[in-house]
Each structure stands twice: as C-alpha cells, then as structure tokens.
Amino acid sequence: EYVMFVDSDxxxxxxxxxxxxxxxxxxxxxxxxxxxxxxxxxxRNVTPDSSVSYKDDSLAAFYDANVxxxxxxxxxxxxxxxxxxxxxxxxxxERLSYAEDKLFVFEFLLQCNGxxxxxAVVYDxxxxxxxxxxxxxxxxxxxxxxxxxxxxxxxxxxxxRRFPTSRKAVSLYHDDLIGRxxxxxxxxxxxxx
Length: 193
Fold this sequence. Notes:
Helix content: 25-40%
Distance between the termini: 52 Å
Strand content: 15-25%
Structural class: alpha+beta
C-alpha cells in the first residue's frame, strides 16, 4: 500500500517502519525525521515537531508547520512513505540528475489529500563528498538548473494557488526557488572568470 525510498549508502533507523505506520489512517504521505551524518559523525537531527495528521482543510497547516530552512524535510524522497495509489503514474524526471528527488516530492505533495508527520528519527542520511549535489559550480550543474528551475517554479505556483492561506506555501517561490536556487546560479555566473 505504501512505497519507501532508501538510498544505497544510507540506512533506516531501528524501528523506522513501526514508528511511521503508527497512527496512519489512509494519509497519502508520511514524513519522518532524519539524522544527517558527515562521514560517520552525526551532524544534525531534523524531525517534525510532532506526530500530526493533516487532512483536507488542515493541509495548509502542514506547510506552515513543516517547511523549514531550505525545505530540509521535503528535499528528498527518503524518510517518507508514499501511498502507492496516490503515486499513480508519477515518476522521477529522467532528464535530471540534480534535484530530481525534490521535484518528485513536491509533485507528489500536489496530489496529497492527507499528510502525516512522524516526530521520530526514521532515517540515517550520510552526506558524502563528490556527489553532483556538491558540484554546484560546474557547467553540468548549471545545465541541470536550466531544466529544474522552470519545472519547480510551476509546481510551487500550483502549491501556492492550492494553499493560499499558508504563508509558507505561498512564500516557497521566493524563499526557496529565488532565495536558494536562482541566487546560487547568479552567484556562480558572477564569480566565474
């Protein structure tokens, strides 16, 4: 009934599935917490503040309670349960090798009528040097941004229109797309020789 994604160099925390399924009542998405490791050293712990079910009219409150710095809980598909029926034909964009996971999560959020948060750490994320995500100054990265930005912009516009009462849903375009990605591209272009 649910699908979970796990990167090959990461790990599920002990009891992750039990924690995530606790209290689930047909929600389309379950968002759990994670510990980020740099090498093998724990760097930071990111979890929802509480275990809450957001359905229908309360979905806007999900964004206000869970959109944080750089959308850290929504950037990747790991640490989440996706209801298979809601996934339908949604797939990762194969033209992207950077931010395809974030785009996937936000496209899925548009399909959700119920989201549950789980305030437990369910995932161990290992940050490794040398990934495309760490190569943010290359021509390859800029080419990926050229594909990603219009797609992500369109998704954020739809989220803002669907949840106009959520301050954080409405501000995602400015705070995340412009503040994070467009400013990064401008900085790269401004500092290149």
